[in-house]
Design a protein that fits this description.
heterodimer; A: 294 residues; mainly alpha; MetI-like fold; 76% helix; 0% strand; globular; B: 468 residues; alpha+beta; D-Maltodextrin-Binding Protein, domain 2; five-stranded mixed sheet; 19 helices
């Protein structure tokens, strides 16, 4: 009996160090930031030796800041637009690469290239390319007699410029996942459809898409989380400017927390971001589940 | 049974890996905490300079110095978190003056007054007077918190080949009725900028332009505009941000708005700068002037080294001849006299954290580093000292002739914010930059942006207890 108890608990005992590590590195900071979001933490309160509990004070103050709401709108625009473009572009490229064409292997390697670069390098390079006076993009436009564009200085164009960079960077990741999903689909349904005389669009709509659904769900959730959290690339490109044109919630939170050291407020903004991501991802899951039930 | 055994083996391996990872993590952290006087410095030429000076100090005094290099973008975050830790790690930290207010309010700094006023500690060759006025930027409520170093100022750079070109001189006089000259007033600055702004295909100094050419530069990026606006804000009609006595926010009063308006109009009304300046900071301004694309530039003195290098600034050199000079920033002329003048300045310095393990050792090091000998060594290594004796030393002036103009700029140096120190200085700096960016891109007029800026600063002052 004793040996049986030890035998059962043995693997769990060995996992304790890993749990301690995960708790200290992941769970504890998360909980600490949640607690912090209910306190007023500034240089003054820290200096006075008391960090007062203010309940929902930070959240209420945030809700009265029009730039907070602007950052949420910017986040939704940036994430939504990038996701739609990356998904459809990625699906198209994946469908092409799924065919047995000459040079597919090399094309696959080239397609992945943007994704392996670091966001900081991407941001710096694109900032140079977008330069109004000396950037290569405006140079090529001038060859076609197109007037130079203020890619990052014009508040009506800056968000589009940032979206273009993200789509360039991350479509390859979508291609990778969707391509692996396409290659995992068995050939039998396609053969049966061919025999039945189905058109290409019918094959895509009634066979490919339904069988690809689990992978599509993974792509949507993963990219949504990444897009909502995107910080470094946007910060290097525009710093959230011009004005507040590209200030997404992560950058808004960064300024409040790490520039002004209003840490309680910044923690509150960060948790709003977490809530947003969870709502969107739960929405995906509900949509997919209801389609399966149907 | 066999399956259970292999499962156990996997679990043992997983557990061992976890423990080892944990051990290495704590071990690595423990390894970093060794060393005598530890100084934190951001990466770049200042780090290299500090290493050289520290090695000399070690040989001279036998006291060990350990220097921790921190990425420039991460300096503030890293410094703040280390200063707030219960157990100190740094004995000396390199900080910007705008951080002093917040750190002092949070009681993260050790006042230097006790060391300075102790005859058993302070060296006889050291005088605080030689560090004025920069040392005032690192003081608050009568307490000195740091010794200054790297007090840069913005100069007005100009193209000698264009200003001295006979064709251009004649055309300028014909248009404006006076001789083309290096601007000392904002009126002349604007006239010269408008005169030299030309489109691609037009003629400049006898040549046809291949690209648009601009009269001057402007740093309008959100995070960098605060490093240019002081020249205009304080120097156009003498505007301020805060009243030093009452903490009343005055940044939206007419004097300040006049300065903002002149700054904004350079792009929005007169078009004498590139339309892309809302994204411009130090690198872009240097690239524009160094590449020969503008006639003038408002740029930091530190850029002189870059402009003096033909490989990096091809537009400023021709046949081995330098094509630029620099001078003090212009001022506002009223009734024939320059009444208002301000020079955008930055001020960095060395502070001793309240949790410093070796505060006395730290004090002796920064006393030497910013004193006559250390400051001179710093200057000869390419740095910008704040000690008057070093700045006027003949050997230093021979190697760094631009220090002469720096010394001329000193009476006019202004930072954001100036005149008053609070715990929200850094936030003020940032929000001023944001307001400037909004004006320059045209989403708000200077008055609208200044009103919003005033409201933001008031809220921050109320949050920190300066206003009720």
């Amino acid at each position: 009996m004793k040996r049986s108890l030890l035998h059962i608990s043995y693997p769990y005992l060995l996992l304790i160090p890993a749990f301690i590590l995960i708790f200290s590195v992941l769970c504890y900071p998360l909980m600490a930031s949640l607690v912090l979001s209910f306190h007023k933490w500034t240089f003054s309160t820290y200096g006075e030796g008391r960090v007062p509990f203010i309940g929902l004070g930070n959240f209420i103050e945030m809700s009265a800041d029009p730039y907070f709401w602007r950052s949420i709108v910017n986040t939704l625009i940036f994430s939504g637009s990038s996701l739609v473009m990356e998904f459809f572009l990625g699906l198209g490229v994946a469908l092409l690469l799924n065919r047995k064409l000459v040079g597919t292997g090399m094309i696959r390697t080239l397609v992945i290239l943007p994704f392996v670069l670091s966001n900081a390098v991407i941001g710096l390079n694109w900032r140079l390319m977008y330069n109004y006076d000396y950037g290569i993009i405006n140079y090529f436009l001038s060859i076609f007699a197109i007037k130079p564009i203020l890619w990052l200085s014009d508040p009506t164009k800056a968000m589009l410029s940032v979206i273009i960079v993200d789509v360039w960077n991350c479509t390859s990741f979508v291609v990778l996942l969707l391509l692996s999903g396409l290659q995992a689909i068995p050939q039998t349904p396609y053969e049966a459809a061919k025999i039945d005389g189905a058109t290409g669009w019918q094959v895509f709509r009634f066979i490919t898409l339904p069988l690809l659904r689990p992978v599509i769900l993974v792509v949507l959730i993963w990219r949504t989380m990444d897009l909502f959290r995107c910080f470094d690339m946007i910060y290097i490109l525009t710093g959230g400017g011009p004005g507040h044109a590209t200030e997404v919630l992560s950058i808004y939170s960064y300024y409040k927390g790490f520039r002004y050291f209003n840490l309680g407020y910044a923690a509150a903004a960060a948790w709003v971001l977490v809530a947003l991501i969870m709502i969107v991802c739960l929405g995906y899951l509900k949509l997919v589940r209801s389609e399966i039930i149907d | 049974m066999k399956k259970d055994e292999s499962f156990s083996k996997v679990m043992v391996l997983a557990g061992l890996i976890s423990v080892l990872t944990l051990g290495f993590t704590f071990g690595a952290v423990a390894q970093e905490k060794i060393g005598p006087i530890t100084v934190s410095m951001w990466s770049g030429p200042e780090y290299d300079n500090l290493v050289n000076c520290a090695r000399y100090y070690e040989q001279k005094t036998g006291r060990k110095i350990f220097i921790e290099e921190i990425a420039r973008e991460a300096l503030r975050e890293k410094t703040t978190t280390v200063l707030m830790a219960k157990k100190g790690r740094y004995d000396v930290s390199y900080v910007d003056k705008a951080w002093i207010g917040g750190y002092a309010k949070a009681r993260l700094l050790q006042p230097l007054n006790d060391f300075i006023e102790d005859p058993d500690v302070a060296a006889s060759w050291f005088s605080v007077d030689n560090l004025k006025p920069p040392i005032d930027d690192l003081a608050m409520d009568g307490k000195m918190y740091g010794f200054p170093s790297e007090g840069d100022c913005q100069f007005l750079f100009w193209r000698t080949d264009l200003f001295n070109h006979p064709e251009e001189k004649a055309a300028f006089k014909a248009k404006y009725g006076y001789e083309l000259k290096v601007p000392e007033t904002w009126k002349v600055y604007l006239d010269v900028a408008r005169f030299f702004t030309r489109k691609k295909g037009e003629r400049l100094a006898g040549k046809i332009l291949k690209d648009d050419f601009y009269g001057t530069t402007l740093a309008g990026k959100r995070t960098e505009a605060c490093w240019e606006i002081a020249t205009f804000l304080y120097g156009y009609e003498g505007g301020k941000i805060l009243d030093p006595e009452t903490f009343e926010v005055v940044v939206n009063k007419p004097e300040a708005v006049a300065g903002f308006t002149f700054y904004t109009d350079l792009l929005r009304k007169w078009h004498v700068v590139s339309p892309d300046v809302p994204t411009w900071g130090y690198p872009e301004v240097s690239a524009a002037f160094g590449g020969g694309h503008t006639a003038m530039a408002m740029q930091w003195m530190a850029a002189v080294a870059e402009f003096n290098d033909p490989a990096r600034s091809a537009g400023l050199w021709k046949d081995g001849k330098r094509l630029f000079e620099y001078t003090v920033a212009p001022g506002r002329e009223i009734e024939g006299k320059i009444k208002y003048r301000a020079v955008q300045a930055s001020q960095w310095g060395y502070i001793i954290p309240a949790n410093a393990p070796n505060p006395l050792g730290a004090y002796k090091f920064i006393e030497w580093l910013t004193g006559p000998e250390g400051a001179k060594m710093w200057a000869l290594n390419g740095g910008i000292p704040c000690n008057k004796l070093a700045l006027t030393d003949p050997e230093v002036l021979e190697k760094q002739p631009m220090f002469k103009v720096l010394a001329e700029s000193y009476p006019y140096r202004r930072t954001i914010p100036h005149y008053v120190k609070t715990s929200i200085d850094y936030e003020v700096q940032d929000t001023v930059g944001l307001a400037c960016n909004q004006m320059v891109i045209g989403v708000k007029t200077p008055q609208e942006a200044a009103n919003e800026l005033a409201k933001t600063i008031e809220e921050a002052l109320r949050r920190e207890g300066y206003l009720k």
